[in-house]
Amino acid sequence: MGGAGLLAACSSVVPSNSASGSTASGGGSGGGGGGGGLPKEPTALVFRDVSSEAGLPGLSRDCIAFRDFDGDGAPDILLTPYSDDEKSVSLALFVNRLDGTFERFDIPSNIEKNFKSCAVADYDGDGRLDFALINGKDGSVQLFHNDASNPPKFSFSTIKASVDKPEPERWTIAFADLDADGWPDLYVTTNSIEMTNAEPVASCEITEDDILCPLEMDLVPGRPEIWHNDKGKGFVPTEMVFPKQGAISFGVSAVDWDEDGSVELFLSYDFDYNQFIKTQGGTLSDILPGLGANLYNNGMGAAFADFDHDGHLDFWIGDVGPDQLWMSAPGGGVKNLAGPMGVLDATWKHVGWGPVAVDFNNDGFDDLFMGNGMVTDTVQELADLTVSGGFPSGSGVDYAFVNVRGQHFIRQDLPFPKAKARLQVRSAVADFDGDGLVDVLEGPKPLRLLRNETKLDPGAGHWIDVVLHGTSSPLNAQGAVVAIEVGGVVGSRFPVESQDGRANSTNVVHFGLGSATEASAIHVLWPGGVRQTVPGPIAAGKLVEIEHP
């Protein structure tokens, strides 16, 4: 059952220089709050692309992180930006100047231009945020140690050969504290396909709730690995064997799904079945079939949140055609409620990548951002393009989904003309300007920073932010689950650093409170199973920092 319960034991886009945007409805990172004094109808979202005025490049590759690298409390941006002529790629940190702009600092590396995915964590416990990056040339993993903050300085090294045997097709990387010892371990895997004489997809079948496109090709099994963090002294290989090695890996989320103090890995696979990996005594097992969510799909990443405030985590999967919205069911298991909650009709004609959940309008319920690879005019066109491998001729558009009191979602279209045909969309969220509204960073290649300029009703839109400080480092609390209590009622809960969105979002957990001006308590389930309650009243509009007891 998703989430055993923390108390059991105790839009629209406004173009630059424009004043308004259009809204279209369809058919933490963050966490919704307690829901006290919520409006009857949700507040529509308004975003404005501020990439250029913020000093960000227009093009970047796969590494995207929206985290505070210099320790000043404001999220910075780690990217692999293209040069103006698109012939070279570099590695750079854009430091938040706290005035709506970012200052670029290039980071030396021995990677020429083939940067792939990255993951962030304080892997050695010195209190500074480091990152790991896949070298796309040979698949080796490079560690970038944060040596100094002002100005930023990183040193790089390659993981020793006895641990890392480079795989050119390695694609996915994530930090996850899989043994709950407070030290982030590393998960890496390949993304490989072996072609046959058959076409990759010969045909697609449109059913009443899906587009099914069987893959007619031989798949080389993926090679997932887990490297144990030896208390900051280095990484050592493990002999953990995955129950199945999916071939086309397009996302990993790290969450304590059953709230037992141990992190599970949700692995999204294209043209395959997803997996939800649980670790017990060094043995890995897939719990997804037991939850009732074992479907063949085109998984493009997942987002976890308690969308309906029932005390259990739910998850949303980006897909080709209709997305999946798996809601925790009474008595255990999950049920796909994409139809009754408005998601099915709203997502028939898209390829949705890297969903990320957060309360964008501070009404107390988590909304969702989805970067689209493409959106077509008809369902048949999407099916045909999946077979041909083509893209539509129209302009690009992303989706935001406004959560209506946990009962259904309203889609808002977010035009992105530069992104009409793209793959591997990644999204991250953070409040970069400190105004209490969470913003969005998305890429790669066309890159944009969306400033959240949603207009809130007077007296509504209150919020509380939470940061947890772990044991090995004040930056390491991944896998914790935080819940907020308003008026004596526990509302939503949210996983810390779940790595949804296929990128690296802030570690600040954001709770919208609606019209409530204070929280009565904050509840934390730490990795390892320790439970903690911070009693209120806790005033709205502030950052609450909580130390591991």
Compute the CA-based radius of gyration.
21 Å
* Strand line-up across the major sheet: 1-3-35-33-32
Beginning-to-end CA distance, first to last residue: 27 Å
- Summarize the amount of helix as a percent range: under 10%
Oligomer: single chain
Q: Compute the number of helices.
A: 4
Structural class: mainly beta
Residues in β-strands, percent:
35-45%
Biggest sheet overview: 5 strands, mixed
Please count the beta strands (DSSP E, at least 2 residues each): 42
What is the typical, i.e. mean, pLDDT? 88
Q: Please tell me what the overall shape is.
A: globular
Spans of at least 5 consecutive residues with low confidence: 1-28
Model description:
The protein is mainly beta. It is 4% helix and 42% strand. The chain has four helices and 42 strands. The chain has a five-stranded mixed β-sheet. A hairpin with a 6-residue loop joins strand 25 (314-317) and strand 26 (324-328). It starts with 11 loop residues before the first strand and ends with a strand.
Outline the secondary-structure elements:
Blueprint: E1 12-14, E2 31-32, E3 46-49, H1 51-54, E4 59-65, E5 77-81, E6 92-96, E7 102-106, E8 115-121, E9 130-135, E10 141-149, E11 152-158, E12 170-176, E13 185-190, E14 205-206, E15 211-212, E16 225-229, E17 235-237, E18 249-255, E19 264-269, E20 272-273, E21 275-280, E22 283-286, H2 288-291, E23 296-297, E24 302-305, E25 314-317, E26 324-328, E27 334-336, H3 343-346, E28 350-358, E29 367-375, H4 379-388, E30 397-404, E31 408-415, E32 426-430, E33 439-443, E34 445-446, E35 448-452, E36 462-469, E37 481-486, E38 489-495, E39 509-514, E40 518-525, E41 531-539, E42 542-547
Parallel strand pairs: 1-3, 2-39, 36-42
Antiparallel strand pairs: 3-35, 4-5, 4-34, 5-6, 6-7, 8-9, 9-10, 10-11, 12-13, 13-16, 14-15, 16-17, 18-19, 19-21, 20-23, 21-22, 24-25, 25-26, 26-27, 28-29, 29-30, 30-31, 32-33, 33-35, 36-39, 37-38, 37-40, 40-41
